Amino acid sequence: MGKKLYTKENISKAETEWLGIPELVVLKTNRDDVGLEVVHRRYFEDEKLLCPACRSSRTRCSKIVDRKLKDLLWLDEDHKTFQIISLLFHQRYMRCDNCGQSVFPEPTEFGEKGCKFTNRLSDALADGTFQFSYKKVCQHYGVPASTASVGEVMRRRIQYRESLLPPVRTPHIISIVEVVFFGEFYPAVLGIWDGEVYCLDILRDSSEETCGAFLKTLDANQVETIYVDPVDSLFNAVNQYFPMASIVVTDEAIQRYARNAMLDIIHSDGKRFPVVHKDRRLTVLHKDLDDRTVVSRIKEGMKSRPRLQRAYNHHQRLLELMETKWSMEDLRTWADQIPAEVDEFLAVGDIIDIFGEQLSGFLTLGEKPPNNYQFAVQGICDAIKDMPHCIFDVMRGRCIFSITHDTMEENGELWRYGIKSSRLIEKINEISANIREERDYGYQ
Ligand SMILES: [Zn+2]
Hints:
The protein starts with 12 loop residues before the first helix and ends in an 8-residue tail after the last helix. The protein has 16 helices and twelve strands. The chain is 40% helix and 20% strand. The model has no long low-confidence stretch (mean pLDDT 94). The protein has a seven-stranded mixed sheet with strand order 10-9-6-7-8-12-11, sandwiched between helices. It has four domains: 1-110, no CATH class; 117-164, no CATH class; 165-249 and 367-434, Nucleotidyltransferase, domain 5 (2-Layer Sandwich), CATH 3.30.420; 252-354, no CATH class. By secondary structure, the protein is of the alpha+beta class. It has helices at residues 13-19, 119-129, 134-141, 147-164, 208-215, 232-241, 251-269, 278-281, 292-303, 306-323, 328-336, 346-354, 356-363, 373-385, 392-400, 421-436, and strands spanning 24-27, 36-40, 59-74, 82-96, 103-105, 173-181, 184-193, 196-202, 225-228, 246-248, 406-410, 413-420. Zinc ion (ZN) binds next to loops. Zinc ion binds next to loops. This is Transposase IS204/IS1001/IS1096/IS1165 DDE domain-containing protein. InterPro entries: Transposase_DDE. It comes from Eubacterium callanderi. It holds the Pfam family DDE_Tnp_ISL3. Residues 199-345 form the Transposase IS204/IS1001/IS1096/IS1165 DDE domain.
């Protein structure tokens, strides 16, 4: 392929300027079905591309592949009015004459590899998807909503937003709590400052590697106490990075695992149970139920469900125990007396057994978690559990990068604490409502 297909005569200067993507040149075109035909600016320049395999500059164009992309053009400075345009990009593929090994596409900056959207369109879609459904956002811009593209679109924008965040101010007290989202466990890293719970991040999985990668970004000298969920991999990661800190398992964690077990039993044995909001009413302290009709309906419902009744009674015993100044001995007795047919509680018994040392450590801690700790953790877990289904990156993006972080200034530098739990919960619920009620994305 010797002679070039296009010459400088083919360039449309006015349209190139109008498009405003610095690396692209718009060609005059006779076809009106393709939108703008574009080539890379270096097509008309002498710049030689280096072979990615051998770094030689003896490369030449071997073929041109046409890529169709959607692009977005803002028509005003406030980014309120826009136009969607189609681009037909004639992308060159280069062959290396030095090593003869490689054929590679010319690199581009305006769009990610394989993505059908330019970056500026992708970013606009991602910005909307932080708070609304991807489908509604795509409808707003009038582009096809392919679910294959949402991960790519979000990851790019998350990277950008993450780069804007100030560094984390390492808390003296850290908590690592597994949140459940569509059957998968994701550790949320929380920090505690002055009696408030802040969310620092949500991690992709509970592996030692993933958890360690986050923990090593913190200042180990600042960490005094860690509340960790009773999971081996999390415990090992924490132990590796903060060997000097007190690593404990809290009463909140025990109650949360017991509550989750109780919810499993309610869902299997409590079908058509004659109480509304049974998930909540059957997992709180019986003596705190103030509605008399609910109390009698619980009694009624339990009559025909003996296994549920035994599980309920045993769960109540744990809740009552936790109200008192309990000891490890009390917990072990509770675990030993788990009714034989209520297997769901055995996992809680195992935790008491395996993490006894960390539970004892909790009992002897000088400083207890703040009063609203249990409320905050449960609120975060419940809010995330209730989010409509999406992939992890989107879930994390919505929780961590669409909500303002709390910051503080020290010696002229900005640091962040994370997102205050009350605001996090409120905002997540707002985003879930946007999506669930299919609210339109756009400007009011
Ligand atoms: Zn080469």
